[in-house]
């Protein structure tokens, strides 16, 4: 569970307080990107995750989506659904038709999806890498490096559109040789949400087994 939340979040983006050790060009781009997303009341993103490991000759793709509003989120990925209303978290496994309920503690997560646009502000150094094109669109590539050397992630590369400062993709490099690339396929600002969006309604999951871990 932590793995999924960590990857998704470390995924969609980043931000920071520029200091003398930081690249001011990269900081300006990240600030513009951050302001764009934080101005939204909510957003929904459909993405493709590609996992590669050269040593293991591994390459696999999965698709998912995430909806975020403030401290609340709902994630669907690889047969799992993770719902958080800011206090309680439900983790539903489709194959087992089982849901685990736990108290939500953002400090207990590697990275929370609600932190994705402020991640670069603490614990990461960043630098401008290059200009590139993604799907024919001019973009900037920025590299983030964790200050904590014990972090299993040793760098993250974020690709940001020059046109509207949206995140087009990002790649996370882990010390175990795994590389995770996330590509945004569709982005919806301010999607319709209601009281049921960030709560688990077991009446919609016939025969679901409920395990309360609180």
TrEMBL record:
It comes from Hymenobacter algoricola. Gene3D superfamilies: Lipoprotein localisation LolA/LolB/LppX. It comes from the Bacteria. The keyword Signal applies. Keywords: Signal. This is Outer membrane lipoprotein carrier protein LolA. Residues 1-20 form the signal peptide. Pfam families: LolA. Transmembrane segments: none annotated.
């Amino acid at each position: 569970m932590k793995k999924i939340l960590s990857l998704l979040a470390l995924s969609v983006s980043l931000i920071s307080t520029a200091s003398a050790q930081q690249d001011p060009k990269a900081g300006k781009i990240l600030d513009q990107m951050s302001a764009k997303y934080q101005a939204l009341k909510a957003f929904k993103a459909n993405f493709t995750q590609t996992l590669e490991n050269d040593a293991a000759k591994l390459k696999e793709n999965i698709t998912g989506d995430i909806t975020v509003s403030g401290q609340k989120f709902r994630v669907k990925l690889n047969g799992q659904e993770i719902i958080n209303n800011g206090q309680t978290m439900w983790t539903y496994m489709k194959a087992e038709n089982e849901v685990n309920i736990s108290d939500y503690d953002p400090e207990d997560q590697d990275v929370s999806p609600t932190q994705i646009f402020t991640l670069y502000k603490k614990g990461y150094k960043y630098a401008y890498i290059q200009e590139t094109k993604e799907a024919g669109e001019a973009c900037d590539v920025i590299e983030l490096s964790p200050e904590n050397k014990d972090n299993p992630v040793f760098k993250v590369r974020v690709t940001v559109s020059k046109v509207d400062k949206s995140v087009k993709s990002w790649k996370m490099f882990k010390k175990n040789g795994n590389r995770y690339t996330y590509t945004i396929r569709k982005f919806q600002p301010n999607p319709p949400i209601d009281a049921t969006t960030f709560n688990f309604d077991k009446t919609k999951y016939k025969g679901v087994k409920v395990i309360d871990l609180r």
